[in-house]
Amino acid sequence: MESPKSDGNSVEACAASSPSAQKSPFSKFLNNLSPIKSARASRYTQRLSESSFPTTPLVFSSPHLDLHQETSFLKREEIAASSSQAHGKCYSPSNSAPIPCNQKHLQSCSPSDFVGECLADPLKADRAQNAERLVQSATDVPLLPSCFTASEVTIGKVDVTNDVIIEVGAQTLPHLAKKHLLSGSLCLVQVSDDQSIDERSDKISEFSSENICDHVESDDFLEHNEASQHQRGIRRHLQFEATLDCKCDAAFNCHTSSGPGTAVPEVGDHVVIDHQSSEAVVVVNGGHLPDNIELPWDSQKVSCFDQQTLSCNGKMPGQQFADRVEEPSQCQDSSKGKRQRETYTDESEGCKLCNCKRSKCLKLYCECFAAGIYCVDYCACENCFNKPEYEDTVLDIRQQIELRNPLAFAPAVVKQANDSPNVADDGNSMTPSSARHKRGCKCKRSKCLKKYCECFRAKVGCSDGCRCEDCENSFGKKSEPIFQREKKLKNLSHEKLNTAEIMSGSIKGGTANQFSPTWEELVDISHPTPLSHSHSRAVPSLTSPNLGDCPNDSQAQSQKGSGLQLSPGYLHWCSSALSRTQGCVSNVSRELDSTSALCDIMGDGSPEILMENSNPTNIVKAGSPNQKRVSSTASII
DNA sequence: GAGTTTGAAACT
DNA sequence: CAGTTTCAAACTC
User: Fold this and answer.
1) Whose CB has fewer CB within 10 Å in chain A, the N or C terminal residue?
2) How many angstroms is C1' of B4 away from CA of A301?
């Protein structure tokens, strides 16, 4: 391993700012950083200073640290995570006021009501509540890299005895076993001033070794992490593009998608963002790995974040490319070449490994590229340019693709506002599906029953945005367009005709038109659901797609099938959902225009209500919490 | 593991 | 926008 050169802005310099770090094993470890890592760390540190991120050490008031309470570890984690979100939230060692390390980052949360509550009686504490409070407290802090790793901790010396300085942005503790580092906790270690540097680090190591893995094995922690690790594992993500413009904490938030109740284990997900390259240098997965798992990679590389949950004040950070380390469960055994893939998982993008040969992993053919992540060694790709070292190229290509299709890198699956089931042609409710694929599929032969189908692969039902044929998606069929129904009906008519011919032995003077489907017949076919009968007056009008003419999804779909299609993509899905509730809308612009009109009709001016009731089944579903409001729409129709 | 099938992406 | 080609994943044997 080459020794990085210190440029004065590097992590090394950062670590050296601590008196204790100068001779510490951490600084030794700094010298063992690869140039790339060192460069990233350097950029990160530099960005921190440039962007006025507080580099002041985190100081936790020692009275709140009870190292004798083994179970308090999780609470320390909570604090650590919360503090990491707050990055720079400092507590005075002697009083309850936060140290003014960076005024704008200071919060009202004081040690007494924050740290103390968390540590005082962790066994009795309601972790969910605490976590929620912690997260809430942390999220109040803007502009800060929300995560850092336990490996980012160094200890320093402070004037006040018994206090511990946690310095962020330093380096990995070399003493910690990898598996312990993976526990991903910012461990707070109480050391005394008279201890030597090595003793301190040893103590940290000892503490970590003895406590981290043990104490993170709380039920809820393990429950979550077993699932998350199996599904998501540990990945190393690097954010593309400078996210300095998006300094909000969410941009650096590496929490997974769980709610506050599961925030305790989640907070172990830490990341250090290199703001210059927008790279997450080190991320440690949220918690614990079984002791029997030996990880094949350097703990330095261990990282993750769940990019799907990133948000920047509600907005997705535009570019979230990520470089990641393989999942141990799935990727460890992977080798170049064929392997089992887990392209989609329920809550994350899973472990994507590509096998690209010609695309150089710079096209959407490449699932890694499409997912916004860098390829990794376990990918079987050839001539891969989807690597951090080609970041500029990747970004250029990405921009070009986004110019063509702004939604190209949007999440493939769009969650629906409510968890309403799709409705099959026969009116039966299909598997409830809370999400739809953003583009929809165009399957012709797979019947949307194989992973060729993007919807099926994403475990979502097909939507009206799909152009699939003979959809049998087990997660939810799409409604059949009228032209297909008409086609079927014509076929049926021809069959009838032929049957009649056979039966009668002759047919005279008649044409097939005599047996062409009437609109009434089309209504019967295109409105297979009970709802349709209640609106049987609403003959599907292909020429006047008024709200009143299209009372349900089938009719809306009928219009679509008649050539009045919505545009594809996410907008389509959202708009489609909107249109289904509205009754029908023939195109996006009409939908947009009619939204306000419908709000006027409904009288409450709440367009979100439309989204909440995007499925027509809600209209007639008794007991639906939205029934009253929706039924008013139905009555209007 | 090789070959085939499939459908999305890219291209025209 | 539709048709064709390219591509890589999914699938089959």
Assistant:
1) N
2) 39
Q: Would you call A75 helix, strand, or coil by DSSP?
A: helix
Contact A185, A217 (CB under 8 A): no
User: CA A139, CA A147: separation in Å to the nearest integer?
Assistant: 12
CB A79 within 8 A of CB A134: yes
- In the numeric block, the tokens 């670590």 are attached to A15
**Amino acid in position A248:** C
Please give the pLDDT value at position A494: 62
- Eight-state DSSP code of residue A46: H
CA neighbours closer than 13 Å in the CB half-sphere of residue A282 = 32
- For CA atoms A16, A19, A22, A25, give the dihedral sign: negative
Give the rounded percent of residues in chain A with a pLDDT score beyond 70.
16
CA–CA distance, A78 with A571 (Å, rounded to integer): 38
Q: CA angle, A445 as apex, A448 and A427 as ends, to 5°?
A: 45
A341 touches strand C (CB under 7 A): yes
Indicate the SS3 state at residue A422. strand
The rounded distance, in Å, linking the Cα atoms of A598 and A619 is 15
Which nt has its C1' nearest the CA of A468?
B7
Q: How far is the CA of A576 from the C1' of B5 (A)?
A: 32
Band of pLDDT at residue A443, cut at 50, 70 and 90:
very high
Helix (H, G, I), strand (E, B) or coil at A135: helix
To the nearest 10 degrees (0 to 180), the angle between helices A588-602 and A570-582 is 40
Rounded Cα distance, A295 and A178, in Å: 7
User: What letter represents residue A249's amino acid?
Assistant: D
Radius of gyration of chain A (CA): 29
How distant, in Å, are the alpha carbons of A472, A477, A523 from that of A512? Answer: 30, 31, 20
| pLDDT band (50, 70, 90) for residue A484 | low
> Tens digit of pLDDT for each residue in A523-577?
333 333 322 333 332 222 223 333 333 333 333 333 333 333 333 333 333 333 3
CB < 7 A contacts with chain B (nucleic strand): A 337-338, 363-365, 370, 401, 404-405, 408, 439, 441-447, 450, 452-454, 468
Q: Which nucleotide is nearest to A563 (CA to C1')?
A: C1
Is A112 in a helix, a strand, or coil? helix
* Cβ-based neighbours of A456, under 8 Å, separated by 6 or more: A441, A446, A448, A449, A450, A473, A474, A475
Using the CB atom, is residue A627 less than 7 Å from strand C?
Answer: no
Q: Which nucleotide has the shortest C1'-to-CA distance from A338?
A: B1
Residues A331 and A379: their CA atoms lie apart, in Å, by: 9
Cβ–Cβ < 8 Å for A150, A173: yes
DSSP string, A478-535: PPPPHHHHHHHHHHHHHHHHHHHHHHHS---S--GGGGSPPHHHHHHHH--SHHHHHT
